[in-house]
């Protein structure tokens, strides 16, 4: 079992108190590197979810709202707590997710950045009076908290994803009911251990854990939860849209991806290869923004493949707590089997293995070696589906128009990447790609300072930047007559 000063309580958190009324109903948390059970946490009943919503409702202040200064202090305190505990939170994250400890600590820094950004820009949520005086009135615009928000996060970024949501919710003055993924609840418990020591109002943050079907049903049906923010699959996102339609809840959804990574013939191939390694293998390839379809111009495909293979063959796979490990295990067998199915399907349909070893050669467990295949086409699973693992499928292209069409050949529109030395071409291709994020000569993903979100079936709304800061407020216009 895992031991940590941040995990002294392995329970839910409702109304400012650690709560366990699950009556012995628990679920196991595994270390994917070893297969060992490292914790048991409560699977909370519907009554607990309802209690968490009630606690949030009691913390909501409308007629006497929390001041900008108070909310800023909340954000700064959480930011500082994350920074002060980055190593230990990173260790917990590594143990339950599998990503290397150093990478996990980087995710803690990333999370702290969202609280820092919201603290520095929270003044944007203050009321303002418009300069015009139409209809002989003075018009003031207020940004009111939307109310209790349900925040549902995935397992691939256990601290980063909640930071995006919670920072904006607290900036707006919105209480929240938070559900982490069942694979990675311990990082969230660690965060709540930090917040329990802060001067947050009782009920401002509430933690519930357990079955998604139980928790989701209560959050969707409760009239006291006017907003849900969810990161996860498009399939679940569509269900949330249907399940909340009657109440016309506000939804912020970051859903699936199928990112194209386009390398033109004039690109700096070394830079493109280095960026692809950093982009694709972060979190073992289990990220919604990592390259899923790599399109390489036919003139440089062989050279790029060689550079990529050289880098991939130097990577180390193993337990993320060990020094020098580049890629940890996949989070569960379902994910492992999907990556293997994609690889087998590609090879059976004519793709060739450029780098990597067949799974199993590194021993038992969930370790999947970084693998590169060439000759991918749209009939293959790895082209049509989001792989979510360390498989790099490369396809060839000839023209700009062809690759724009191929890049858009998916229902998803989250992240994409373009490598070219031609600035005019880069602008044309970026404008043509229907993705909310287009990296030009970089494989970097989102940052707290800029809005991030999807087009098409990849979601609704934005996180990060001023756009993300405004997600949890409702503008209210107050004209005053003379």
From TrEMBL:
<feature type="domain" description="Aldehyde dehydrogenase">
    <location>
        <begin position="18"/>
        <end position="478"/>
    </location>
</feature>
<dbReference type="InterPro" id="IPR016163">
    <property type="entry name" value="Ald_DH_C"/>
</dbReference>
<comment type="similarity">
    <text>Belongs to the aldehyde dehydrogenase family.</text>
</comment>
<keyword id="KW-0560">Oxidoreductase</keyword>
<dbReference type="InterPro" id="IPR016162">
    <property type="entry name" value="Ald_DH_N"/>
</dbReference>
<dbReference type="GO" id="GO:0009450">
    <property type="term" value="P:gamma-aminobutyric acid catabolic process"/>
</dbReference>
<dbReference type="InterPro" id="IPR015590">
    <property type="entry name" value="Aldehyde_DH_dom"/>
</dbReference>
<dbReference type="GO" id="GO:0004777">
    <property type="term" value="F:succinate-semialdehyde dehydrogenase (NAD+) activity"/>
</dbReference>
<dbReference type="InterPro" id="IPR050740">
    <property type="entry name" value="Aldehyde_DH_Superfamily"/>
</dbReference>
<dbReference type="InterPro" id="IPR029510">
    <property type="entry name" value="Ald_DH_CS_GLU"/>
</dbReference>
<dbReference type="InterPro" id="IPR016161">
    <property type="entry name" value="Ald_DH/histidinol_DH"/>
</dbReference>
<feature type="active site">
    <location>
        <position position="254"/>
    </location>
</feature>
<dbReference type="Pfam" id="PF00171">
    <property type="entry name" value="Aldedh"/>
</dbReference>
<protein>
    <submittedName>
        <fullName>Succinate-semialdehyde dehydrogenase/glutarate-semialdehyde dehydrogenase</fullName>
    </submittedName>
</protein>
